[in-house]
Write a structure and sequence with these properties.
Elements (H helix, E strand, L loop, with lengths): L15 H10 L10 H8 L28 H17 L22 E5 L3 H8 L4 E5 L8 E5 L5 E6 H4 L3 H4 L7 H22 L7 H19 L6 E8 L5 E7 L20 E8 L2 E9 L3 H14 L2 H12 L3 E3 L1 H8 L3 H11 L2 E5 L5 E6 L18
Antiparallel strand pairs: 1-4, 2-3, 5-8, 6-7, 6-9, 7-8, 10-11
Helix pairs in contact: 1-3, 3-7, 7-8, 10-12
This protein binds zinc ion (ZN).
Zinc ion binds next to β4 and α5.
């Protein structure tokens, strides 16, 4: 019998070594500090996954490995998430260093939980009894899940001192200054990048993922150091009604609203950043990108304006791409919960990727199979319920 967890070595996007380490530390599946090195050594001897047979796993037979139970799997996964978070804590500010960051007595940078969405200004407004609703990732489909607003949207990406750079969007009301628009896009960039680095602890995204983050970061860092807020171009869409929805996220688009493909470069993934929040009885949607990427996205932004179909167009962008999204709980129950099956369809269509492997069976990236017309909103989704 082959211990079930060994098959993880066949999924190029899973960093199986991290999983095995935790199983070892928890003494699961027969993994112990005594046989761990041998198990890792033997995994390297397995044939490439595209030619592998069940009998190739016989080399593990003498090690006494056994199945990891269904109850133990989630325990290991939770620990993987925790370790990923712990090991990725850092201050992203371009001047971050032990001399400029907030440090503890031993000189270690003290990273605190930063909110990617304003806690007091926005989350408080849309919370009910201290809770907001987001989409659950623990089940298939887009069911709602209530989370405490203190925990919603946090990431460990700034020291206390540098987190203060966001005070123009944390403390001051939104008036649409270039600095405010820049800060919203920058915070969305750091949040999505930080989450990706946390996840790369246990998942392989291919080497391009790190390069994308580093190359985008250079543009933001330069702009921060030179106070060049014009480095970000932002389109502000004001919906005339108050919707209790908050979003901070970023993604790239392969197609615009007319189904034209958006040609990305090889050296950096050009992202678009999106921020949604209610204020002054209205709802603001900020669509931002680096000035360098204007040639890729200004057409799409122009389409959005001229189509004048904001509720549908914004909804499909959010449903297809966004993870960091929060709703007021009753609003979610009333307007969003009934759409969960359609949201799943739109999301799956947008994220339809196949893995690219090299001749050795190593994961080198993903190939997108997203249909060109997926922004047409054929599912008639609508997050803006009235
Ligand atoms: Zn710092």
């Amino acid at each position: 019998m082959i211990a079930n967890f060994l098959f993880q070595t066949e999924h190029p996007q899973i960093n199986f070594k991290t999983f095995f380490e935790i199983a070892r530390d928890f003494r699961k599946g027969g993994l112990t500090p005594d046989n761990f090195e041998e198990v890792i050594r033997l995994t390297a001897k397995l044939p490439p996954i595209n030619t592998r047979k069940a009998s190739d796993y016989k080399i593990f037979e003498h090690l006494g490995l056994k199945d990891i139970s269904e109850e133990d799997f989630p325990i290991i996964i939770r620990e993987m998430l925790r370790r990923g978070q712990e090991q990725s804590k850092k201050c992203w500010h371009p001047e971050a260093a032990s001399a400029t960051c907030k440090v503890d007595k031993s000189g270690q940078i003290l990273v605190s939980a930063a909110h990617s969405i304003q806690n007091n200004g926005v989350l408080s407004k849309i919370a009910k009894d201290g809770h907001v609703t987001t989409f659950s990732r623990e089940e298939v489909g887009f069911k709602g899940k209530n989370v405490g607003k203190k925990l919603a949207s946090i990431f460990w990406g700034f020291c206390n001192f540098h987190d203060a750079m966001f005070s123009p969007i944390e403390i001051t009301n939104y008036t649409g200054t270039p600095e405010q628009n820049f800060l919203y896009a920058y915070r969305a960039f750091v949040m999505i990048s930080h989450k990706k680095i946390e996840a790369s602890h246990f998942a392989n995204f291919g080497s391009q993922s790190d390069i994308d983050i580093e190359e985008n970061r250079k543009h933001f860092d330069r702009a921060i150091l030179e106070n060049d807020y014009g480095a970000i171009k932002t389109h502000v869409i004001e919906l005339p009604l108050y919707y209790p929805i908050a979003v901070s996220s970023g993604f790239y688009l392969d197609f615009d609203f007319e189904g034209n493909s958006i040609p990305h470069s090889e050296n950096r993934m050009e992202n678009i950043y999106i921020t949604v929040f209610p204020d002054n009885g209205k709802t603001y949607c900020l669509l931002s990108y680096l000035k360098e990427d204007e040639n890729l996205y200004q057409e799409l932004a122009g389409q959005l304006q001229s189509r004048n179909n904001f509720k549908s167009d914004l909804t499909v962008l959010l449903a297809a791409h966004v993870e960091n999204i929060y709703f007021e709980p009753i609003y979610f129950e009333t307007f969003i919960a009934c759409q969960s099956e359609s949201i799943l369809r739109v999301f799956q269509q947008a994220q339809f990727d196949v893995q690219k492997l090299d001749s050795q069976g190593n994961h080198i990236g993903n190939l997108s199979l997203t249909p060109p017309d997926y922004l047409k909103n054929t599912q008639k989704l609508n997050f803006f319920g009235y």
